[in-house]
Amino acid sequence: MTExxxxxxxxxxxxxxxxxxxxxxxDLGVPEGAIFALIxxxxxxxxxxxxxxxxxxxxxxxxxxxxxxxxxxKRPHEVARVGIARTFQNIRLFDNMSALENVMVGxxxxxxxxxxxxxxxxxxxxxEERDGRERGMQLLDLVGxxxxxxxxxxxxxxxxxxxxxxxxxxxxxxxxxxxxxPAAGMNPAxxxxxxxxxxxxxxxxxxxxxxxxxxxxxxxxxxxxxxxxFGQKIADDTPSAVRTDPRVIEAxxxxxxxxx
Length: 260
Ligand SMILES: Nc1ncnc2c1ncn2[C@@H]1O[C@H](COP(=O)(O)OP(=O)(O)OP(=O)(O)O)[C@@H](O)[C@H]1O
Ligand SMILES: [Mg+2]
Prior knowledge:
The protein is an alpha/beta fold. It has helices spanning 46-53, 76-82, 99-110, 113-120, 122-143, 158-170, 188-203, 215-221, 239-243, 246-253; strands at 6-17, 20-31, 35-39, 61-66, 69-70, 84-86, 176-180, 207-211, 224-229, 232-237. It has two domains: 1-83 and 174-260, Rossmann fold; 93-171, no CATH class. It contains ten helices and ten strands. A hairpin with a 2-residue loop joins strand 9 (224-229) and strand 10 (232-237). Bound molecules: adenosine-5'-triphosphate (ATP) and magnesium ion. Residues 17, 20, 22, 40, 42-48, 89 line the site of adenosine-5'-triphosphate (ATP).
């Protein structure tokens, strides 16, 4: 099937909320080192996939696997520890903290040692703090927002907030980065830069799993695209094959002229 082994796998995953079947027997494989996109209409079940991966929900049926180990049933902090980080469809930042502090908090989420370090002695803690600032600035540089490092998160433009969320997620040093509609609210120039950034992230060795409505971006960056419709997977193929799939066009893309 695929040349590289799947880093992340969903095996016949079903997710029900009361009477609503958000996902119905969905199989997905995200190859290591790929940029994998998940698209589909509003309410198709895309964000539910991320909530299952990150341990927010337990699947009603089926299982999830990461690097060959089962992750369904793990709690969110346990999933973070195996190397999965995410951004949110509705931006979640510490509004009154600076951009740099937001990233440093992301790094702290990974290390229990920051608390322990503080307890053991200030010197080590201070060094960690300095290293943390340096790493934080490197990550802000990677996403292109060092100029606002000291600004509070709530004062940043929408596009910069989205990029800051990515930097914060990367601070946990994930193997897999989940991006939930990162281009939402961005202008065309920002979307262009986001495409470059997503490829850069993949090139430094992080597998990227992207949920996105902007088809230009999806087609531009993705190695593979899966399509959900009413909780069912209706396609899973190369971007060009998905773009011309009659079922996908009917369910989601509409007439080719509308497929922006
Ligand atoms: N916690 C929940 N409780 C009840 N229903 C839920 C819950 N989470 C999601 N759903 C329902 O599951 C379905 C899929 O929702 P989901 O948020 O995964 O869609 P989506 O594809 O991300 O949509 P969008 O493109 O609008 O973000 C919807 O019908 C939604 O109302
Ligand atoms: Mg969603």
